[in-house]
Amino acid sequence: MTERPIDLRSDTVTQPTREMRRAMADAELGDDVFGDDPTVIALEERAAELTGKEAGLFVPSGTMGNLVSQMAHVPRGGEIVAESESHVVFDEAAGHAVVVGASVRTIPAREDGTMDPQALREAFRDPEDPHEPLTALFALENTHGHTMGQPLTAAYTEEVASIAHAHGVPLHVDGARLFNAVVALRTPARDLLAAADSASLCLSKGLACPVGSVVVGSRDFIRRARRARKLLGGGMRQVGVLAAPGLIALQDGPDGMIERLEEDHANARLLAERLAALPGITGLDPIRVRTNFVLFRLDADALPGARHLDARRLRAAFLDALMADGVMMVEYPHSQIRAVTHHGVTAKDIEQVLASVERALTRLAGSSRVASGHDVSPRTAAEAGATSSQSWPGGRDPAPETTTAGTGTTPLAAS
Ligand SMILES: Cc1ncc(COP(=O)(O)O)c(C=O)c1O
After folding, report:
1. Residues 250 and 287 in one domain
2. Where would you tag: which of 47, 188, 289, 356 has the fewest CB atoms within 10 A of its CB?
């Protein structure tokens, strides 16, 4: 059992730093719906400056950031071209359909998180044909979650933008983890977004703020996005208390939280390299770990003690065994398990995670001796699985997409 839980479910679990909490307490405030909150204004200006855009808009979440951007760009009956498993398509409760009134045309990602430019060229609808929706927006996700957090380069973004712009269609970037791409590619945010018309940047993931995203774009786009935010009930009043940590996070150098993401990437790579070497782990090429996501599968053939479990129950038993040891990961689509490194997770924690993984695999393999040499109680996989489902710290109710496998309840990660 680790001294404190090591929560690798997502980088959304990060806690604000002491400095952020102090800044929240001391923030200068005003009514932001009147445009009077100096802390919000400063954050919006800082985000715009960092990304080379004219203006910014503070919103409560990444989901709202993407939604107001779609509302600002896309007319009802328009169509959005996006990656098949991008957050906008997969994990935002069909806001594009319910709120925007748009359809999506999806294109699968390649291994490096990009979509085939030729497929993008072929995705345009014929505006003269009354049967067809009007192609109204291209969307990219940088980093791209479902390909293990691949960073998309400035050159690729420019190529996609030029395809979109040739038809008068704007490009939006879901930059929930754009700063991970900035660090991984050593390319400034303003360059990564130079060709994009808008972007939504999350503060509440690896940057460790408690709440919020900033949408950036032209002044005219932000005016429309602000109206959309009001419509959604996202106009907030003395909201500088929530914006204040963002100003700390977006500082240059070691005072901010952007440079620090490098540590998360190094920890993810360390985790991946060591995991990939363990019997029982498959589907993980550590070279592909470019940012803070590690995705892997369990190799049932290497875990004969768990032969009676189907694939879902095996994953649940593995996750529950980790949980009983104080380590949290989550199920991810395509039979994968996800671990995300973030602020508050150290290289020492990664060693503990690896020891817990070895113990869990040893149990599932049917042996009582772990690879690192420590004896463990000879519990069965089923016993391990029985321990933790009741003590899931997030206390989340099983959602419709929840996988209930074995004795454990393991929500599929969307965040
Ligand atoms: C790629 C991506 N976009 C958007 C979001 C939505 O952010 P939020 O949870 O703040 O709504 C997430 C959440 O994890 C995400 O991973």
Report:
1. no
2. 188
